[in-house]
Amino acid sequence: MDRPEVAGAVLDQWMNSWWYDTRIRVLVGGLCFLGVMGFYLETAIEGGEYGILLFVGIGTVVLIPLERVIPRHRMSILRPQLLTDVLHIVFTTFLGIVPLVFIFPALQFLRSDTLVQTIQTQPQWLQIVEALFLTEFLIYWGHRFTHVVPLLWRFHSVHHSVEYLDWWAGERRHPVDGLFMSLFTGIPLLITGFNLTDLLIVGLFNGLWDMTIHANLGWRLKFMDRIWVTTEYHHWHHSLDRQARDKNYAGALPIMDILFGTYHLPENQGPGPYGIDTHMPTTYVGQLIQPFLATGTRP
To answer: How distant, in Å, are the alpha carbons of 112, 126, 133, 204 from that of 123?
Structure first.
């Protein structure tokens, strides 16, 4: 872990930088807010994407009450850095998706007509199952690469900097990290030729479950061990415990961690505390900038 004087020096460097000036942050934040809100308003009027509203709605109606009833850790709803994580949900989703709108259409030529026909002549339920397993395999290795490749870890460390882990904090991600994972999983799925409906079903399911496994829920769900990724299972992935580092990369299927030797779920011990060993700003703009300034260490 960083020595106190080193961490203090890094923090002082941040505080004295011109781009950390309050006026600059307010100006940049205001422009980003207006731009993104304009985009969401336009798509809503045109009957377009309502994904952000769906996620926030489910989190508010379902997960917040559950976190109050069966919390893993006692914390206030208005806990520290909540605003930062709300901004990640609103802005980072936009920043990570926009490049894909231009990238994926340009890659259509990679699709094999023969493979597409083979996949799409199967029953839809089989396509969905196959898409789920392929997606989980890609999520596992893409996630693992973000931990072991130093350049990728710079951006993924933003996600692991969460110290107050709940469903809001689970969406704290750097746009570059989100873009990498989208390309790493999306391009192979595009090439193999799965139906867009199948991919949307799997993607929506993974997104909703991702919120749940980050939530501040105290349930153990032991009957799901080695079958399905639970909240406790993924919370271990965020733990500062050195025994849990580089473990539990799977998004939904623990079989991936079992096969590749990264399964970790102690019987009589709970995960926590959470976070990383190095400095990470607590502000949204600061977390966007930090990966370009320092390499940090692995979780």
So the answer is: 19, 5, 16, 20
pLDDT tens-digit series, residues 113-148: 888 888 888 888 888 889 889 999 999 999 999 999
Locate 218 and state its tokens. Answer: 């105290």
Contact 208, 171 (CB under 8 A): no
SS3 for 16-80 is: CCHHHCHHHHHHHHHHHHHHHHHHHHHHHHCCCCCHHHHHHHHHHHHHHHHHHHCCCCCCCCCCC
pLDDT at 295: 53
Residue 68: how many other CB atoms lie within 10 Å: 10
Separation of alpha carbons 229 and 141, rounded Å: 16
Query: Hey, what are 292's tokens?
Result: 């370009």
Read off the tokens for 198: 């199948």
Of the candidates 32, 36, 15, 79, the residue with the CA atom closest to the CA atom of residue 286:
15
